[in-house]
């Protein structure tokens, strides 16, 4: 009978959490979350991050703005939060509503308090290889890969999605580890054929069951970063059939990468202590 390795985030998280508790026990820190609108996965992530922070003894502050907020109002709120000396770090949650320019908004964020490499200065330093503090979710993926000893060098890897928060920085991390990476986007032609050739698939689209069992090869590794709500249940981009029947190893949703993303935020927070 086929044995599939479930790449659960909890064992990795337990190891990281133990070291972080020691750090935060010695000093006081406050993490602020900044969210605009009603995106359900963003609010789920916010709540889980707050629980994680409080569990480590970190103070929290939540700033929530309505869906119809103006650019000026959003920038003023983020600037005020950045200027508050009591705030150690800030995590702006994505996505922002269409009337908001994310680039202009992130320019109002204090780069030192930026917990997810969203400020242009931090992004530039990361892409130039001058900073290890890349975005948190890609770092969580790499922690899982390393913990479970999944080799990347020379492997055929497909990255589905090329967003600023996950796909783009994760692609760079994978290339830096000598993987051969193909990037697929919404207009990629013949996606099933490309996926069928992959040793490892990372997907960060946020579309339920985008990748199905017939699209992936036997004994591939599936890293599911997508998060969507389907019939009241949180699901990933990759179908359960693909994970259970085809994969040699896979991350569950929930319980996989998302468990680590919170702790990567907390790890970034330690740089300001």
In short:
The protein is of the alpha/beta class. It has helices at residues 10-25, 40-55, 71-83, 102-106, 120-127, 136-147, 167-176, 191-195, 240-246, 257-269, and strands spanning 5-6, 30-36, 59-65, 89-92, 156-160, 180-184, 200-203, 221-224, 228-230, 233-235, 249-250.
Sheet/helix structural class: alpha/beta
Q: What's the count of strands?
A: 11
Helix content: 25-40%
Q: Could you give the distance between the termini?
A: 50 Å
Strand order, sheet with most strands: 1-11-8-7-5-6
Summarize the helix and strand pattern as letters: EHEHEHEHHHEHEHEEEEHEH
Describe the structure in your own words:
The strands form three sheets. The protein has a six-stranded parallel sheet. It has a three-stranded parallel sheet with strand order 3-2-4, sandwiched between helices. It has a two-stranded antiparallel ribbon with strand order 9-10. The chain has helices at 10-25, 40-55, 71-83, 102-106, 120-127, 136-147, 167-176, 191-195, 240-246, 257-269, and strands at 5-6, 30-36, 59-65, 89-92, 156-160, 180-184, 200-203, 221-224, 228-230, 233-235, 249-250. It is globular, with a radius of gyration of 19 Å. Strand 9 and strand 10 form a beta hairpin. With 273 residues, it is an alpha/beta fold. The protein is built from ten helices and eleven strands. Helix 6 (136-147) crosses helix 7 and helix 6 packs across helix 10 (257-269).
Topology:
Blueprint: E1 5-6, H1 10-25, E2 30-36, H2 40-55, E3 59-65, H3 71-83, E4 89-92, H4 102-106, H5 120-127, H6 136-147, E5 156-160, H7 167-176, E6 180-184, H8 191-195, E7 200-203, E8 221-224, E9 228-230, E10 233-235, H9 240-246, E11 249-250, H10 257-269
Parallel strand pairs: 1-11, 2-3, 2-4, 5-6, 5-7, 7-8, 8-11
Antiparallel strand pairs: 9-10
């Amino acid at each position: 009978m086929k044995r599939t390795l479930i790449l659960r985030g909890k064992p990795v998280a337990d190891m990281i959490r133990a070291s972080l508790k020691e750090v935060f026990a010695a000093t006081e820190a406050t993490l602020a979350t900044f969210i605009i609108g009603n995106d359900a996965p963003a609010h789920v992530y916010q709540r889980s991050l707050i629980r994680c922070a409080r569990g480590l003894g970190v103070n929290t502050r939540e700033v929530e703005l309505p869906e119809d907020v103006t650019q000026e109002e959003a920038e003023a709120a983020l600037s005020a939060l950045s200027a508050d000396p009591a705030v150690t770090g800030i995590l702006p949650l994505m996505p922002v509503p269409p009337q908001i320019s994310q680039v202009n908004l992130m320019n109002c964020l204090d780069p030192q308090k930026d917990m997810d490499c969203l400020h242009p200065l931090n992004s530039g330093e990361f892409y130039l290889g001058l900073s290890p503090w890349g975005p948190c979710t890609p770092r969580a993926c790499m922690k899982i890969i390393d913990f479970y000893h999944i080799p990347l060098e020379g492997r055929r890897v497909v990255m589905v999605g090329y967003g600023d928060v996950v796909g783009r920085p994760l692609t760079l991390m994978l290339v830096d580890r000598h993987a051969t990476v193909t990037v697929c986007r919404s207009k990629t032609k013949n996606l099933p054929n490309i996926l069928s050739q992959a040793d490892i698939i990372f997907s960060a689209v946020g579309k339920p069951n985008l990748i199905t069992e017939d699209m992936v090869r036997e004994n591939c590794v599936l890293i599911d970063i997508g998060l969507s709500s389907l019939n009241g249940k949180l699901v990933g981009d990759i179908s359960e059939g693909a994970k259970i029947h085809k994969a040699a190893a896979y991350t569950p949703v929930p319980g996989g990468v998302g468990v680590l993303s919170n702790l990567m935020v907390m790890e970034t927070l330690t740089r300001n202590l």
